[in-house]
UniProtKB/TrEMBL annotation:
The keyword DNA-binding applies. This is Integrase. Residues 4-85 form the Core-binding (CB) domain. Residues 102-275 form the Tyr recombinase domain.
C-alpha cells in the first residue's frame, strides 16, 4: 500500500534529483531513506507533519545510529520536503548535528611501502598505488578508464569526481611503469581495473577488501581503509612542503578548510618547527659569558 502511494511521489523526487544532477548513488540513497521514513510512518511520507519528522529523528537517535547517518537523513528529508513537496515549514525545524572532526589515520611512508608490497596481486597493487600515488577516492580509482592515463602529459584525468567535478592529478614515472606492467599482463580494454565481469569496473568493496588484506599481511596495526591512503598522500605532500592550496586542487576539495586538516597530522612538519622555548634557550646561551 505504501509502495503504491509512493510511486508517483518517488518518480517526482527522482525527476527533481535528476534536474539537479545528483549522482546515481546519491539518488539511490535518498530514495531508500524516504522509503525507510515511510515504513516508520506506516503511510505515504507526503502526509507527514513536523511532529512525525521529529519523532523519526528521535527514533533514529534512540536506535543508536551514528551522527553521519542522522545528518544524511536530515539532508534527505530537507530535499524531499523543500524541493519535491515545497513544504518549507518542516525544513526550518530540521537541524544537522555538528560533530567535532577527528584526525584522520595516516600511515608512514615505510608503512605505505609495506602495504603496497603486500597487495594481493598485480591488479590490486596497481589500484592501491593509484589511490596513494594520486590521492584518489575509492570511487575515482574504480571509475578510471585506460584512456584516462595520459603518459605524454604525465597526468591522470579524473572524470566526475565528488561533486561532479573533473580534475587532473599527477602521474609519477614509477606509477606509470607499474600501470604499464599491469596493462601488459591483463590488457584491460575499457575500464583500467575491470571487475569479475570485464564489462563492469571493479567494485569499491573489492578494492577495500584488498586494502584490508594488504594491511593485515603487512602487519599494520592501525585502522586502515582505502581512504587512509588518500589521507597519507596529502600528509606526505605537506611534509614535503608542497603548498596546501596545491594539495587542495589535487584532492579535489571544494574548501581549503578540509585540506587544512592535514596540517594537524603532518608530524614531520610539526617536529621541524622550532619551539619559541628553543629560541629563548639559544638567546640565553648567546647572552651568558662562556665558562
Amino acid at each position: 500500500m505504501i509502495d503504491e502511494a509512493m510511486s508517483p511521489l518517488r518518480r517526482r523526487m527522482i525527476e527533481d534529483m535528476t534536474i539537479r544532477k545528483l549522482a546515481p548513488k546519491t539518488q539511490h540513497d535518498y530514495v531508500q531513506r524516504i522509503k525507510n521514513f515511510a515504513v516508520f510512518l506506516g503511510r505515504s511520507p507526503d502526509t507527514a507533519s513536523f511532529e512525525d519528522v521529529r519523532r523519526y529523528q528521535l527514533h533514529l537517535a534512540a536506535s543508536g545510529v551514528g551522527v553521519p547517518t542522522l545528518n544524511q537523513t536530515v539532508s534527505t528529508l530537507r530535499f524531499f520536503f523543500r524541493v519535491t513537496l515545497k513544504r518549507h515549514e518542516i525544513v526550518e525545524h530540521t537541524h544537522v548535528i555538528h560533530e567535532p572532526r577527528k584526525l584522520p589515520v595516516v600511515l608512514s611512508v615505510e608503512e605505505v611501502a609495506r602495504l603496497l608490497d603486500a597487495a594481493p596481486g598485480l591488479k590490486y597493487k596497481a589500484a592501491l598505488s593509484v589511490a596513494y600515488g594520486a590521492g584518489l577516492r575509492a570511487t575515482e580509482v574504480v571509475s578510471l578508464k585506460v584512456s584516462d592515463i595520459d603518459s605524454k602529459r604525465m597526468i591522470i584525468r579524473v572524470e566526475q569526481g565528488k561533486g561532479g567535478k573533473d580534475r587532473n592529478v599527477m602521474l609519477s614515472p614509477s606509477l606509470l611503469e607499474l600501470l604499464r606492467n599491469w596493462w601488459k599482463a591483463a590488457r584491460p580494454q575499457g575500464w583500467l581495473f575491470p571487475g569479475r565481469d570485464p564489462a563492469q569496473p571493479m567494485t569499491t568493496r573489492q578494492l577495500n577488501r584488498a586494502c584490508h588484506a594488504a594491511a593485515q599481511m603487512a602487519q599494520i596495526n592501525k585502522r586502515v581503509s582505502l581512504h587512509t591512503l588518500r589521507h597519507s598522500f596529502a600528509t606526505h605532500l605537506l611534509e614535503q612542503n608542497i603548498d596546501v592550496r596545491v594539495i587542495q586542487v589535487l584532492l579535489g576539495h571544494a574548501k581549503l578548510d578540509t585540506t587544512a586538516l592535514y596540517t594537524r597530522v603532518a608530524t614531520k612538519t610539526i617536529s621541524e618547527v622550532m619551539s619559541p622555548l628553543e629560541h629563548i634557550a639559544l638567546k640565553l646561551k648567546e647572552v651568558r659569558p662562556p665558562g
